[in-house]
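Function Code: 16.4 Hypothetical structure dump, as promised
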Amino acid sequence: MKRTLLFTFLLLITPYVTAQNAWWPINTSIENINGTLIVKSLKSEPFTLLVSPRYPLNTSWKFNALVKGINFNETYVEIGYFSSNGTFLYATKFTKIGEETFGWINLTVIATPQKDANFTALMFVFNGSGTLFIRNFTATPVNASSLSVNSTFIARYLSLTDILLELKPKKYLIVNESDLVALIILNGEEYHPGDEIRADFYIMNKVGIVDEVDIKLEVYYHGIKVYSYSHPSWREYSAGKIVHIFQSSRLPRITPPGKYTLKFYITPKGREPKVATTTIVVKPTLSWFAMVFVAISFMLLLGIVLVKAPKFIEPAVLGLKKAYKEFSVGQKFVFYAIVGLILSAIVLALGAENYANDIAIGVYYLLLIGVINLWIEYFEPKWDNPNIRTIASFYLLALLLYLSRVQLTIYPSMISLGIGISLSVLYLRSRPKRKLRVIYVSRKDGELFMIAEDEEWKYMAISSGDSFMLVGKRREGK
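structure tokens r here:
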């Protein structure tokens, strides 16, 4: 809609835009003070314009300027094309460069020759009333074949110092290495459970061109890693260009109060990571204390119920134990997954979305292992041993959780591995020793031949000197 209004407005002013060697204000006023153009919009609607001097289109033109806006609803820039008598024809590369008030921007726009146009100019378009400042405007002829890009380029800031002077952040970190400089700005120093925490990254590559920068955050609470986040940024990081990206998230409403250590890792592709560390403080609120009080009261009430009313609960507990014991290995892992889904929903309701997502990843792994076990149980292979399969399942779960350690940390995989090791020890210690009954013995030429059996197996053994071979097969009828 805005684009349509703009073109309609441009058609209305076409007769008045003729060959110009100076700036042409359309419903705007312009003043030059010490080399800075100060442009003020005289109307809020429709769109108002400022047109630069025209340049002949016998070559491509590169427009450069520093611009700063105050109080405009929106500020746009585009390339205008004109006929030989200066009549406006059309505009291209309609690009927004700012909203409301914005700081100094390094603007670069390239105009290329068009078959039906003879002149070109840089056009600023304003929505609403406000003031625009323009410095160091230049128009440079360039060879079209040498251009690597044919678009509008806007550098939001000229340096990291400009960012600090304009935003005046309370909490920020600076990473300054030989190949990269980065400014990390946090939206506060103190937070409360449920608050939004935002990190803005202003990254400037110093050497060459990088097409990927990995951003990673690790959060530690009393030395224990409680959260991690990583995300690659795929865009062009050319030398001297500042790129702005950000990440925001809400603290869970169950976040414990105290001091947290944040470690940021900025890793350009093919280079060493750059590390910056800072701390934030989380302070409790009345709602946090209320939630803790409700949780403790619920646990106490549950304990009282379990102690005071055993005759009502005992049948249900015994029934649940009996049902669990009758579960197969696959059914047990599916049961674990269902419990995890319920826990994930509760954690999500408490506002800990990131932790709920982590639990959901573990649930997926539990379901996967459960389905694998159910398939084995369905086919009933002769080599199957439920105890060994349970141990192997926990080892597989530990491996899957370890492969997701960047998201889940290392602790879940260590817990699963510990369970697997414990079950392995219990299984080896509880294996019954077979009692064999010898039913046949013979000796010939220094060799001993023996047949023995137990309840299920029959064994044949041949001994010669120090060597011994035992062969067993299941007895008939077993």
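The two ends are 83 Å apart (CA to CA).
lmk if u need the other ones
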